[in-house]
Fold this protein.
Amino acid sequence: MKALSKELSTDEQTQLTTHETTINAGLQTFHEVGNALLAIREARLYRQDFATFEDYCRQRATSRVGFCRQVRAGSGRQANDYRAAHKESGLHG
């Protein structure tokens, strides 16, 4: 197996930047989805068609209630943790 140089080639740097841009965009979307789900739950905007928020998640937002919970829980904390670590490390994006 060939040892990799510590320095990134121009092509590798471009790939890294592209992937980090995708990650950052995904985290922003994840955060927005979490906030939207939280707003729907807190204002009970699901109530016209669903008895509970979990029913809404099962039928409307996703087929898995657990996903709704993960998105809500992670939308703030995990995205913020990543952004803080990202900023401290000096990564691109």
User: Anything to note?
Assistant: Residues 45-93 form one domain.
